[in-house]
């Protein structure tokens, strides 16, 4: 009797498994088709969402430009909006594919600490970017010198995590915002005018008064020199082999380098015209006479 019952149970279980397996294989093509449709729709949503994000970024950029916001602030906000909208888009696509939203939130929460430790440098750069926009130590178009690494150039972009500098020889330097916010820097173009100091050496035999007059005329003739600001020629130092004269004036920031090169050259021509020599280092050696 027990053998008959066991056989009946085994037979019933075999029939159920056979029927279930048959149903699974019958439903498999439909499930694959449904999954394929979902994937295609997800890709379509991704494509449409990317275009919508571009449109939103364009609207934000134009709105800030109409509000006369700084270029750096516009770049920062635009990049932040881009990152935030892509996170929302990915979250939406995951939910559409059937991933439970609660599971996503739980996963993000559990991974939050690990992610925070892994990207703490990036978070520091993000905070640094916010501080740069709030405190405005520099803006796009300023020429800055970062004192920690001695990197310098014209600020071309201020992004969420980094700032781009363009050097005079057309190299691009990328600096993290955290380093710029936490280290000292020099903003060369923060003010409208910049002082020019040139040291010109003359020999001890030269007429100091005549040399000063010739150099003063150079400053008075140069069109870039601000005549309503300080113009001075003075004795800067009595050096070992020369008398060093200081030539000081003020220029517009835009004219600084061209003015520096031109005035330095003009000082040499002026001293040559007056017959005043620019000495080179000399060393007098005295040998004792033998008895």
Walk me through this protein's architecture.
- By secondary structure, the chain is α+β, with helices and mostly antiparallel strands.
- It has 3 domains: 30-118, Helix Hairpins (Orthogonal Bundle); 125-187, SH3 type barrels (Roll), CATH 2.30.30.60; 193-273, Alpha-Beta Plaits (2-Layer Sandwich).
- It has 7 helices and 8 strands, in the order H-H-H-H-E-E-E-E-H-E-E-H-E-E-H.
- The strands form 2 sheets. Strands 4-3-2-1-5 form a 5-stranded antiparallel sheet. A 3-stranded antiparallel sheet has the order 6-8-7, with helices on one face.
- Strand 2 and strand 3 (162-166) form a beta hairpin.
- Helix 6 (208-221) crosses helix 7.
- It is elongated and about 115 Å long.
- It starts with a helix and ends in an 18-residue tail after the last helix.
Please write out the topology.
Elements: H1 2-66, H2 71-96, H3 101-118, H4 120-135, E1 143-146, E2 151-158, E3 162-166, E4 172-176, H5 177-182, E5 185-187, E6 193-202, H6 208-221, E7 232-238, E8 243-252, H7 256-273
Antiparallel strand pairs: 1-2, 1-5, 2-3, 3-4, 6-8, 7-8
Helix pairs in contact: 1-2, 6-7
């Amino acid at each position: 009797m027990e053998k008959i019952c066991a056989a009946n149970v085994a037979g019933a279980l075999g029939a159920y498994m056979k029927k279930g397996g048959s149903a699974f294989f019958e439903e498999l093509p439909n499930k694959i088709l449904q999954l394929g449709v979902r994937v295609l729709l997800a890709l379509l949503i991704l494509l449409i969402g990317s275009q919508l994000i571009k449109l939103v970024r364009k609207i934000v950029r134009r709105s800030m430009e109409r509000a006369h916001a700084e270029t750096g602030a516009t770049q920062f906000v635009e990049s932040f909006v881009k990152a935030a909208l892509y996170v929302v888009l990915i979250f939406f696509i995951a939910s559409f594919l059937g991933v439970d939203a609660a599971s996503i939130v739980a996963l993000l929460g559990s991974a939050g600490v690990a992610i925070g430790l892994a990207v703490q440098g990036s978070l520091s750069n993000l905070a640094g970017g916010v501080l740069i926009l709030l405190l405005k130590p520099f803006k796009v178009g300023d020429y800055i010198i970062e004192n920690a690494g001695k990197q310098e150039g014209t600020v071309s972009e201020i992004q969420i995590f980094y700032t781009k500098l363009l050097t005079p020889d057309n190299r691009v330097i990328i600096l993290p915002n955290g380093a710029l916010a936490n280290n000292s820097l020099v903003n060369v173009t923060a003010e409208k005018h910049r002082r020019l100091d040139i040291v010109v050496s003359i020999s001890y035999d030269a007429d100091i008064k005549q040399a000063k007059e010739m150099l003063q005329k150079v400053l008075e003739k140069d069109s870039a020199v601000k005549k309503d600001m300080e113009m001075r020629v003075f004795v800067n130092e009595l050096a070992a082999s020369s008398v060093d004269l200081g030539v000081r004036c003020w220029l517009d920031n835009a004219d600084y380098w061209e003015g520096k090169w031109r005035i330095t050259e003009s000082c040499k021509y002026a001293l040559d015209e007056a017959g005043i020599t620019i000495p080179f280092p000399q060393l007098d050696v005295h040998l004792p006479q033998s008895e």
